[in-house]
Task: structure prediction
Amino acid sequence: MAADTASRKPPTLPAPLRRMPTAELHLHIEGSLEPELIVRLAQRNGVTLPFASVEALRAAYAFTDLQSFLDLYYAGASVLLKEEDFFDMAWAYFERAAADNVVHAEIFFDPQTHTARGVPMAAVIQGLAHAARRAHAEYGIGSALILCFLRHLSEDEAFATLEAALPHRHHFIGVGLDSSERGHPPEKFTRVFARARELGLHCVAHAGEEGPAAYIETALDLLKVERVDHGVRCTESPALIERLARQRVPLTVCPLSNVKLCVYPDLAAHPLPALLDAGLCVTVNSDDPAYFGGYVVDNYLQLFAAHPRLGMQQARQLAFNSFEASFVDTAQKARWARELDAVIERLSG
Ligand code: HPA
Ligand code: ZN
Result:
């Protein structure tokens, strides 16, 4: 091997996976609540939990499907009562995100999980917005909030939630759709998404996680979403894969989540590499990192370990996609892409 080639060999993974800047676009802030913080907030707020200890709580994280997870996720969120609780939860996420080189996070929150327990909308949004301001000041992390409607509840309840959040309109950039997917198709929320679009909000929705590929199509056609959260069951429809590639509709994929919720038996069976090969704008995200065994870098590391054919080029593409798929302006996307290439270049030196 020529000396100059040897001195400029491509960086070996996983260093770039640990060091490259990325945007996180699929993160439920309530899913970042670690067991230690759940127990601490329960004590602070006098909330009784059905678990005796942090260890007992963690031991319960053996899920069989989405609903078995959601039952525990809503129980965990029951400790959040005051504005400072929402601040503490989001601040803990931002500290962790900074360690993973997340430069930008578009963060889901589920107001109905809290307002149903009598928590004021203002406490939820202001606590999260305060942490976001501090993360920008201390870590330079940009972020934006996306208000999710719980799809197991009615569209009327979604409308009431959107209305209640409007005094805080300047604190969120979009709406999403999460919770139990099967039996709650996108069309249930057509009118409230139309209203959100009128208000100038971005629209995204979970689709094709446990629900069929048809839900991805109706999320695109009826809710007019700009990104699909998960979307992995598009693999069941070659025509849909072709459409997603042609229209470059981003999918916010969450590999560890999909394995924890038994969508796939293991990461080796995960279709992300095939979707990347098919030219889709797929991104890597953590979903509910406190429950699924890892934050965004853990998702990258474990996915790449399970698919040895994934290399530097795919790592760069995935980070690049995360910027492309974000809701920031094109000048910022270009700055991040240059930063990404500079980090890769440095690691190659
Ligand atoms: N799917 C649907 N709803 C959710 C999820 C998820 O992975 N996480 C939190 N709410
Ligand atoms: Zn999700």
Summary: The beta strands are 22-28, 102-109, 142-150, 172-178, 202-207, 227-230, 251-253, 282-284. Residues 1-6 have pLDDT under 50 and may be disordered.
